Structure formats: structure tokens, C-alpha cells
Amino acid sequence: MRLIIEEGNPGSRQMALDETMMILLSKDIIPQTVRFWNFSPTTLSLGRFLSVKDWVNEEELNKFNIPLIRRFTGGGPALHDEKGEITWSVAIKGNDMMKAYETIGKALVYSLKLFGLNGTFSPINDVTVEGKKVVGMAGAMKRGAILVHGTFMFDTNLEYMSVIKMPKVKEIERGPAKSRVSTISALLGEKISRKEALQKIVEGFSSVFQLKEGELTEIERDFSEELKYKYNSKEWTYLR
Description:
The strands form 2 sheets. Strands 7-8-9-10-6-2-1-11 form an 8-stranded mixed sheet, with helices on both faces. It has a 3-stranded mixed sheet with strand order 4-3-5, with no helix packed on it. By secondary structure, it is an alpha/beta fold. It is globular. A hairpin with a 2-residue loop joins strand 8 and strand 9. Helices cover 36% and strands 25% of the residues. The protein has one domain (2-237): 2-Layer Sandwich (BirA Bifunctional Protein, domain 2), CATH 3.30.930.10. The protein has helices spanning 11-26, 52-55, 58-64, 97-113, 168-174, 184-188, 194-206, 218-231, 234-237; strands at 2-9, 33-39, 43-46, 68-70, 78-80, 87-93, 119-122, 126-129, 132-142, 145-150, 212-213.
């Protein structure tokens, strides 16, 4: 299985590349892939089916100068701190999204175990430690190809979580977003570096997938470059 390790890029490029990988894998043009990367700058991503007015605090978003991007996957809003998160993507063949979440959940629980943390996969698509969410994931399927991507919050600045607004009913039920999440650094009581987090997450995913380092193909680069227009479009971002 191909392993790609990258640095940060804007959300439009990252989402365009993930969607490209799903499309090309569905046509057997590229191999199954695990990719580690991050958003740069810090970005708020919104699930495909959510309403901006219901889930985004645009006043806080503007205060922190954080861009908003809509994903092609479902799920809730996610704050991606460029200095405190490793983001990952898994492109695999299959038609069972729940099985994909469970398999990836095992890799992430193993990664946390390497830090001495007891992680738990919490269906449908979270990994928690001591009841606090440290990993969220979201996925999409296309003709036998599954793309799942998500967070690995090793040192996310939780003050940024104020950019997420929850419908009142959900907030009463679950509590504010900031109260439900944590980071590896906070749980350990010491600052974890990106280098250390990357080492552990690669080892965790290697416990589930047979990984071999590779590179993006020319067609992935070209196709994703063309697809960036979608994610730079206000029509897409403010679809709902």
C-alpha cells in the first residue's frame, strides 16, 4: 500500500487531492494509499451536508482569520490547527464504510498506545481517550473506492474551537465542542512535537496496512489542480 508523507497545503488543494484519489482509485488508476499531511494555514472544515449558519461561528472565524472549507465527505465541523494536528487520508477499495472506520480506528488506537494512552474506537467515527475525542474521521464512497480522512490532534490550540457553533439542541445534548475534545499533549501533560506524532501515527498505520513510501502520480497532480476550483468556490462552501 502506497505511503505518502507531505507538509502543509491550503484546504482547496488538500480536499481536491483527496477527492481525486477517490475518483482515480475507483477506476483502478492509482494504488490504495495512506497519506499524512496537514492544512496550512489553520482551517475549519465543514461536512458536506451541514449548514454554515448552524455550525460555523463566522465572527470567531474572522477574528482568528481562519479560512472555511466544505469537505466532500460527511461528518461534523473540524478545526485543523496547522501547528497541532496531523491530518491523514486513507484511500482503499471496498463498499463497507463502517468496516473502513473500524480498521482505521485500530491503527489510531495503536498509535495512541505508543504514547501510553488507552484509546477507544467510538462508533461511528471517533477515537477517544478518557472520554475525550482526539480523533475524528469522515468518509465518502465512489464505485468500490472509499476515502476516509481525519484528524490526529497532538497539540491543537483548543481556543480555536470557538469557531465551531452547534445547534442549541446538540449543544444541550453534547456540551460545547471545546469541552468534548482533547489533545495528546494535554492528556500527557507535556508538549508533543509533530515529528514525534508523525513517527507514532506512521507506526500505528503500519500495524494495520503494509506500507511502502511512494509519490503522487502526474495524473493525481494534474487532476487535483483542476479540481481546486470547486473548493475555492463560495457556491460550494456556502452550499448550505
